[in-house]
């Protein structure tokens, strides 16, 4: 098994970009989802309710982040001294930094909705739910975990049942693994090593309406698919539709494309 794709998403729900090499720290890939677009309530926006986020592109820079939309681009430095509170679902995250009015105006104009941009500095801590991990772990503005892992054999199994195949980017994984192994094998993985990093798989990823959207435009391409087919092929015992596995970092390290993926521990399917 090999590491076939590495993707970083600097801003929650915006378009990500691929990497050749990445360092995995305690919050996952460096600078992954350290930024978020928030409403006036402080709640982080997602493509579930604001699909226009797919039209925005974000790239990390040496001093902050670069945002672009429809040919326009702005550079936003890491904010300092503007602490505020943000929310990911019901989780309150204190001491994030507001990125200022310039970024807020650019994003509000692009999204046709009053929003602001916030950043999670190193001094801000958001813990992963201890209901899924035996030891403390941290994450950025991801839904709940610092890494999402998917596999090409599982995507091929899904596409074999679809009239219109979908690409992996719909599922927004950080890590895509390919090789000669069975679809859904990742459900039985518990601990894997890629490069010098070790990751523990802690929870299957429940899928939502975002996977019915074109990943580059946010346009809904089909009201039901691929969710309807996934519901038939790959559901957890609680009825949730699953594609991919959430993971935390057990050993920090570096990985690069083509690295061997080694399964260190296996168990029964975590969909049961």
From TrEMBL:
Entry's Gene Ontology molecular function annotations: catalytic activity; molybdenum ion binding; pyridoxal phosphate binding
Name of this protein: MOSC domain protein
SUPFAM superfamilies recorded: MOSC N-terminal domain-like, PK beta-barrel domain-like
Lineage top rank: taxon: Bacteria
Positions of the MOSC domain: 115-264
Pfam families for the chain: MOSC (PF03473), MOSC_N (PF03476)
UniProt xrefs under InterPro entries: MoCF_Sase_C, MOCOS_middle, Pyrv_Knase-like_insert_dom_sf
